[in-house]
Model the fold of this input.
Amino acid sequence: MTTTESPIRIGISSCLLGQKVRFDGQHKHDRYVTDTLGQYFEWVPVCPEVELGLGTPRETIQLVQLEDSINLQSTRTQIDLTKRMRSFAKKRVKQLDDEDLTGYILKKDSPSCGMERVKVHQPKGSPKRVGVAEALLERFPNLPVEEEGRLCDPKLRENWIERVFAYHALKELWRKRWKVGDLVDFHTRYKFTLLSHSEKEYRQLGKLVAAAKSVPRSELRQQYSELFMAGMKKIATTKKNCNVLQHIIGFFKKELDLRSKQELISHIEDYRQRVVPLVVPLMLIAHYVRLLDVPYLRNQVYLNPHPKELALRNHV
Done:
């Protein structure tokens, strides 16, 4: 992974940074977010309820099913805040255009900024849940968005962080006066990364890049961005990672002696059987890339997609 000059700016629910903006005047400080991810990201805090003018502390609010619509209401006084919140959300996400965001972390279960499965109260029957981050997701369809609760899942956490760094790299490509050759280079460097997430999108992107000179640049940029981020959003599974690792072995088949090759294959099989984490075969591969000086692999983002200090590939 290469460093870039522009910072990685992430939108985030303010309470997760320790800001006392919740209804009870408290916060939901997430130490992993501030202490670990904060080493690599710049935060852009947003609290819809406070910014709407509801104050702190305040009456709680909830989503309520009313006939064919879902409304936002204050819990005790039942004041309808739906129109105000929708108007605010539309205006606020428009302002976020100027923040150059590369990702977003939402507060789970929040009626004003939860991403999915937020409780909706109904007059009769059990409460159901829906997503309420429509304005954000609609305006920024390629933006890596996740809830802080889901980041506790190792696979979801790795996927979101990897998407953030990949999206940042893609934005850096578009930021300069890029040529088709620059896009070809970018696509080549992300070959194994894309294959570990989705072979379908990788193949579609390959066809798009092959026809790049016949596609208007603005259309090419939009289509590539959409397909690239759609592919990256799919979880990299053990099976897909093993397929990628087997592809990589092919670059060593003439240079490695039989014993070394068998050792590498053994580590990959241990990973397949979930005896060891992905980092084990990757460390050996990285060693051979340096030792044998394989330029194609040395430039592959797959081998170093995010800071190693985050240890995202250390889980089985």
Notes: The first strand starts at residue 9 and ends at 13. The mean pLDDT is 95. DSSP finds 13 helices and eight strands in the chain. Residues 9-152 form one domain.
